[in-house]
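Usage

Read records sequentially. Each one opens with the input sequence:
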Amino acid sequence: MMLMQKEAIHIGDWSRVILGEAPPVFFLEIILRAIVVYAILMIAFRLMGSRMASQLNRIEQASLVTLAAAIGVPIQSPERGIVPALIIALIVVVCARLIARWASRYEKFERQSQGRADTLVRNGVLCMQTIRKTTLTRERIFAQLRSMQIVHLGQVKRLYLEANGSFTLIRSRQEQPGLAILPEYDPDFLARFAQSAQLVCATCGQESRQEGQCENCGDMDRERAIVAEPGPSDIVLTVKSNSYVPSR
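and closes with the structure output:
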């Protein structure tokens, strides 16, 4: 591949900026290349299974990025052929299917390659140690719970971060008073909910009847729990995250 000399680069060279240095006949060839490459991608996704059409795990994301990097080159470069991209696609498909087969047979390999689910909220209390390991923030978890129509932690029996980055919520069968997760800049809406006499940690929601450090997170602040209207019991909701969150 010939590299352009810096003397050949000019700001006003709109023909080079818009059309590039490839001969005009290459634009007709791009149509054929794009059709072949598109077919390769569709076949590769089909061979890797139906999971490629859903939320991706880390192995599938790596496969997708590798395919994208390999497929893009022959479309844009006239001196590059399609066969190398086809070979890379075959290697990706074979590796993905082998990993899926091993993961289905060996539980330990599945945990190491795919990750595992982490518990973020347990019985209305944030699992702070787990949250730190997953690199999530407290506000990120609260925002996710609010999107699931949760107003305080007492409504949450479990909140899981799945290995693929999605969140799964299990609501409490019997709602308990809990730490409010509503934004502080919306006091009017917060005032609609009754306060309980129960004191909870202002950081994690752990019930606390005495002063001093919270046993769960070490925070010193306390606030009154709130009570909301009872919602549906034992409803399991799984929500896809907007961005992939690495799990352990």
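Summary fields computed downstream for this record:
- The chain has two domains: 11-112, 118-239.
- The CA atoms of residues 27 and 189 lie 59 Å apart.
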